[in-house]
Amino acid sequence: MAIHMYNTLTRSKEEFRPLEEGRVKMYVCGPTVYNYIHIGNARPVVVFDMVRRYLQYKGYEVEYVSNFTDVDDKIIKAAKENGEDAFKLAERFIEKFHEDTKALGVKEADEHPRVTESMPEIIEFIQALVDKGYGYEADGDVYFHTKAFPSYGQLSGQSIDDLRSGARIDVGEQKRDPLDFALWKKAKDGEVNWEAPWSSGRPGWHIECSAMVKKYLGDTIDIHAGGQDLAFPHHENEVAQSEALNEKKMANYWLHNGYIQIDNEKMSKSLGNFVLVNDLIKAYDPSVIRFFILQAHYRHPLNFNNELLESAKSGLVRIHTFAENVQHRIKETADLGESDVMENRIEQFKKRFIDDMDDDFHTANAITNVFEFVREGNRYLQEPNTSKRVLELMVTTLKEWGTVLGVSFVPEAELLDDEIETLIEQRIQARSERNFQESDRIRDDLKERGILLEDTAQGTRWKRV
RNA sequence: GGCGGCAUAGCCAAGUGGUAAGGCAGGGGUCUGCAAAACCCUUACGCCCCGGUUCAAAUCCGGGUGCCGCCUCCA
């Protein structure tokens, strides 16, 4: 089966067909870097990283670009409040973004372009729009003239008239039409600025993505993604700018993720109810956070709180425990190379995982599949005779799924120090002599030191807690 | 007002015409020297409400109710 994805542009699930066989050009709108990212900012970063990983798993070569908005009103405001240089502040939070997202298992983009480093392309883009009659200058500002672009509203599915009734013009703006939006903003006193034909100023918000997409990926790309709230006006405006200039479709597939909510309310920096990833990873293994995000379908709203995170943690531990128990069993299993019915079952699970992911990246169902695999695997572990080959296939399967989802399902093997190993040996000896008082003493002692012992039919196994 | 989304067990979350996945939490049991892990059973005569279509609806249609988001450079 081929990958199907929900396309905001057509409001339906479509089979994915790349522009070029075997290659995918993908652009994800990145953050405005004026603070640490919160869990809501993390969702698109995580889910589109998952999309990228899955495309790669399916054999596509993915060109993945995600920008940083490093010049913006909010950055300027935050810098002013801190008494900090705006560029330094942006730079600082770009570093924090990389730290936090790396912890969440997010791979770096192939390109992370920044507004401040793309100024020539942006100015050139605006000039070209003005030349073609899509942009006009007014007192140093430049606006995009939406009336000149008849299909405006197609992405968000709104009629121009309806949009116009809700739009407004702020004081000081000199738009010809309420729907027009800024391509270039003349600097106010003391603000950072760049020289341009119309004034010293800075770009409007939407133009950067149009310019960067063109620069790094070309006139038409396969996938353009971002948070649901970006569909309008941000992406709508990007489409208008890019298609007005290039006279080509900007992106074939538009993907938008749903919100994370706190107590069923939107989380945002402006509401002040946000949870920072940087704080969260101090209390939780970051893979728990990623696992939590992927347990829901990416387009659905997802409520967040600590109990839900605890619940996700318990589920992930269940998978980890299974992986560890399989590995213990591998060590205790003589080399029985024969396959058995379980091998066929594993192949079925692998197929189902792919079917789930092909269905609009349905990680919720894919993870359900992992849990069912774990239950059948645990049942298999209770059998007196197991095939080493099958056990090893279980581990590689878990690793494969973990790579696709970006969540490690198989914990790294750890080493014991000699003293602990000796104690475990002593306990095994004591148990064989039915000296349970001594064996329980050693078990309690090790528990204090964070080593949990479990006696099985195949011998004693241990794990750290 | 315009556009869109959501409503399924104590909590989370799948399922979009064929008789309610999965996880967490809870209860009971099996295994164990005792544990742990695991497995088994159990927890929605019902999927917001009211009508309708159908042999069959959580799923389709009509009408309500509630919540959320976008239309304000918030992912």
From TrEMBL:
This is Cysteine--tRNA ligase. Keywords: Aminoacyl-tRNA synthetase, ATP-binding, Cytoplasm, Ligase, Metal-binding, Nucleotide-binding, Protein biosynthesis, Zinc. The gene is cysS. Its main location: cytoplasm. A motif ('KMSKS' region) lies at residues 266-270. It is found in: Cytoplasm. InterPro entries: Cys-tRNA-ligase, Cys-tRNA-synt_Ia_DALR, Cys-tRNA/MSH_ligase, CysS_C, Rossmann-like_a/b/a_fold, tRNA-synt_1_cat_dom, tRNAsynth_Ia_anticodon-bd. Its EC number is 6.1.1.16. Its cofactor is Zn(2+). One of its GO terms (molecular function) is cysteine-tRNA ligase activity. The keyword Cytoplasm applies. Monomer.
